[in-house]
Design brief:
This protein is α/β, with parallel strands linked by helices. The chain has a single domain, classed as Metallo-dependent phosphatases (Purple Acid Phosphatase, chain A, domain 2). The strands form two sheets. A six-stranded mixed beta sheet has the order 3-2-1-11-12-9. Strands 4-5-6-10-7-8 form a six-stranded mixed beta sheet, covered by helices on one side. The longest helix is centred in the first third of the chain and has 13 residues. It is globular and about 50 Å long. The two termini are about 35 Å apart. It holds the Pfam family Metallophos_2. This is Calcineurin-like phosphoesterase family protein.
């Protein structure tokens, strides 16, 4: 099975369309959406409709902190810019879409794989995996050999060796990485809808469950259109401009 792992979509229609088209071209057979389907971007209804359709066809989907904020009133834990988008998004989506979000899980386990949005030790708390210490804590919090995680908008890969040492490196796109069964792995694909590593191309990853090969991808998309739609919607212009630079 070839799984596409797409996370932090952030209501970016253009980025999601590009990632899905790229994944289809590579003959992906199943999809996992790791949360933050909405927030920041101007197309929450389209993105939610698309993910809902994929879920009906067997895809996995998780709730992220921006999704959960739609259910929790005014999102006081967020910064003012993110909170403004939450309020705007809540007025855009349908009751059916809000119900879909409300039923999304925090974690999904399948065979020897764990899917979470934020981390494995407390997925509902939204703590970030900012480095080796948090990655180690997350890997120790699950029996799964491989954890796929969103929330962090920069592609990263962590592993624990047989000696218990945690390693971290930044993967190169298009280069298959065999995930040895002798190690534990934590995979952060990066954000499809709002990359923050200085590269504006959308991020996602694929994992072949037969060969155990992980591949990171960067997919160029029409960021200019996504930017202009954010501005036209009356959302903070900084959210559009950052798409052009990936920051």
């Amino acid at each position: 099975m070839l799984i596409a792992i797409i996370t932090d979509l952030h209501a970016n229609r253009e980025a999601l369309q590009a990632c899905l088209a790229h994944a289809e071209k590579h003959k992906v057979t199943r999809y996992a959406f790791l949360g933050d389907l909405v927030g920041y971007g101007a197309d929450p209804r389209w993105v939610l409709d698309t993910v809902m359709d994929y879920v009906r066809q067997g895809a996995w989907a998780l709730i992220g902190n921006h999704d959960a904020a739609l259910l929790q009133g005014d999102g006081q834990s967020m910064n003012p810019v993110a909170r403004k988008v939450v309020d705007w998004t809540r007025a855009q989506i349908t009751a059916e879409q809000l119900d879909f979000i409300a039923k999304l899980p925090y974690r999904i386990e399948w065979e020897d794989i764990l899917f979470v949005h934020a981390n494995a030790w407390a997925p509902e708390k939204w703590d970030y995996i900012d480095g080796v210490m948090e990655a180690t804590r997350s890997m120790h919090a699950t029996k799964a050999s491989i954890t796929f995680c969103g929330h962090v908008h920069m592609p990263t890969l962590f592993h624990i060796s047989l000696t218990g040492k945690t390693g971290e490196f930044t993967p190169m796109p298009e280069e298959g990485i065999p995930l040895s069964r002798q190690r534990r792995w934590l995979v952060i694909p990066g954000s499809a809808g709002q990359p923050r590593d200085g590269n504006p191309a959308a991020c996602y990853a694929s994992f072949d469950t037969d060969s155990q090969v992980l591949t990171y991808y960067r997919v160029p998309y029409d960021a200019e259109t996504a930017c202009q739609k954010i501005i036209a919607a009356g959302l903070p212009a900084v959210l559009g401009h950052r798409l052009l630079h990936g920051n």
